[in-house]
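Researcher: Re-running this chain for the archive, since the previous output was lost when a drive failed. Same request as before.
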Amino acid sequence: MASLTSPMEEMSRNPNRINLGRIGLLFNNDTISLSQISEPHQELDVWNGIITSSFKVDGKDVKVVTQGDFDSDSVAFQVESDLVKSGALSVYFDFPYPPVHTTKYKFEVFVGSYDFPSNHTTSLSRGCRSGDRAHILHRLPATSYHVNLRWPAEARLQLSASKYHGTSDLAAHRFMLSPVSTSTKMSFTAQYSPDKRIADLPRDIQKRNSLAWNDYWTDGGFIDLRSSTNPNADELQRRIILSQYHVRVNSAATGQSPQESGLMNNGWYGKFHMEMLVWHHAHWSTWGRERYFNRIFPSLYESMLPSSTERATYMGWSGARWPKMTELVTKHSSPGGINAFLNWQQPHTMYLAELSYQASPGITTLQRWDKVLTAAADYMASYAWRNETSGHYDLGPPAIGVTENTPVKESLNLGYEACSHHVAYWKYGLDIASEWKKRLGQPIPEQWLRVSRDMAPPPIADDGLYTVYEGLDSSWWNDAKLIKDPRSVIMLRGILPDTPVVDPKIAQKTADRVMEVWHDEKITGWGRPVFAINSAKIGNPERAIKLLTQYEYWSFDDAGKSHLCFASRSDGGQTPPPFIPGNAAFLYAISFMTAGWQGCQEETPGFPKDGTWTIIHEDMRPAL
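Model: Regenerated structure tokens:
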């Protein structure tokens, strides 16, 4: 049988993705069918971090309260119903096997397979004689882990083997937690862990979880749109609040960045993407939540430094070449035509370091970042090559642009990535690295200064507008592939801090032209936030707010999760929610529009002054 995945895709994806398990309810020892459920209602209390689900099963009320735990991989549950008292309602735990991935689509939603019970084992052991805990061990060929269960001693619960729905065989991987008392409530903690531990009691998690959420909401910035009369204000407020909720759940790890779908599913090849670090995490700084930013940086770069230095050396360059897509076990760069040639993740180091310094200027910040900044700049300076004909330093080819739609063999001096003293982001990175050395009182490497000084200028076509890469004329605006996503030319003035190498008049005319060709249904993912940032910076707040309030084109579901929303794809694939860089980039755009950026003197520069917007904000920080 022919393989459905190419060898390159087989090597790119994480072959060991697993879904840890499934926790659900049983009614009379069977899984509950949709026909048995009526009047469903679910409410998220974002202030306390509580999800309350209520519904009827066979006409009887059921309420389930769910709370996660920031301090461990635990979830606390409380199930309340007369069906619990009668013994008709119980809880089950089931454990899947990782199947062979048969789809070539990188956005695959992975939930595991329950079709191979003999390929893995699940066993149960009692934790102690007190009867208030149990431990389930799930063994797979390449790994194993525990689910540590805990409940109040007075609850009198018991864990036992269950049965598969529709079969008479004892389930090898399903267990049932049920009451042996006449209480209408079941309260328990489920903790997933690599080893056997004593999980905390649910009441302890419930208390500290709410306190932690209260602390989160009272720390950092906030924006209040309730006094606005604009009809789009309520939905914008909802998205602002729920986006803050989702980034806290999915993106506030220690030393690691999430994959694009966060913790909600295991798609995107099961790896995180280094070029998305700014979109995932820059908002922590501008919203005054540096403690979450500092959990990730610069430790993420420090962990990648040895392998990235080895990668650069192998390829004949100095310093450290960061990978495009990777994970923290091997730290390898995943293979692929895009992965090998993408470069805009390199200056992210300087951008994020400067955000860190803006929040906490001082010697401690400078010293923390110096090693990774130096390695990144050494690579960038060595990667640029001197064109003896022009006298400039060029970047590529081979190369591929931000939007991953430029021809690898023709992409010379990409407009956004190729920036040194004359071309945006590359120069910005080298100049920040030089400034960093100056702040530390250290000598600046001559190669950094030379490349920055002599970098090729940003490409301009014969119509006087910025273009995607050098060598294109104005006919590129008719190239269906390039104009499908031309966001790189609007990034020259927007996400990139103001620089003399970018002409503001040309940038504004270019952005206006992009608006003509990049139609609403094509602006996806973090495209709308970056375009909104550009619009605010060129003095067009009407366009900025329009981009973020065209709700029919950019969907946030009822829980506030951003959709990537590819309008159409040749492979028929659709990206499921969430798209965490969408929520995070949206927050970054809102901070630009509210608190401005370095050198901006205007109050709320991204909101129209038409009398319909009233913005009350506190503790918001300017962007770069």
